[in-house]
Amino acid sequence: MKDEAHKDGETRTEFLTARQLGAVLQVSESTVRRLAHSGRIPSIRITPHIIRFRLAAVVEALDGARRSRRSTRAEDNGADDSQLSFFE
Q1: Whether 32 contacts 18, CB under 8 Å
Q2: Long-range contacts (CB closer than 8 Å, 24 or more residues apart) made by 31-36
Q3: CA distance 14 to 3
Q4: What is the rounded CA–CA span in Å between residue 75 and residue 28?
Q5: Does the predicted model carry a pTM greater than 0.70?
Q6: pLDDT tens digits for 46-61?
Q7: Cα separation of 62 and 65, whole Å?
Q8: Most confident segment among 27-36, 55-64, 74-83
Q9: Number of other residues whose CB lies within 10 A of the CB of residue 83
Q10: Concatenated DSSP letters for 54-86?
């Protein structure tokens, strides 16, 4: 995903489908939809059946969730819970 500059200087944000986001995250489309439905990743519902995602917002949400889980599990056995995260 990338932002494109227009002639008038505004930036156009591109949005991904659930299938496209699933390919980026290497998960199924149904997993993406489930994460959106549960509120774990931000989404934009265009119609009751059409949903879109901004990759930067999803990455930020997943990274923030990972950091939150890691800080609450500081006393745990130190297992890395980096599933669905771009960062280690």
Answers
A1: yes
A2: 35/84
A3: 6
A4: 32
A5: no
A6: 999 999 999 999 999 9
A7: 5
A8: 27-36
A9: 10
A10: -HHHHHHHHHHHHHHHHHHTTTS------TT-S
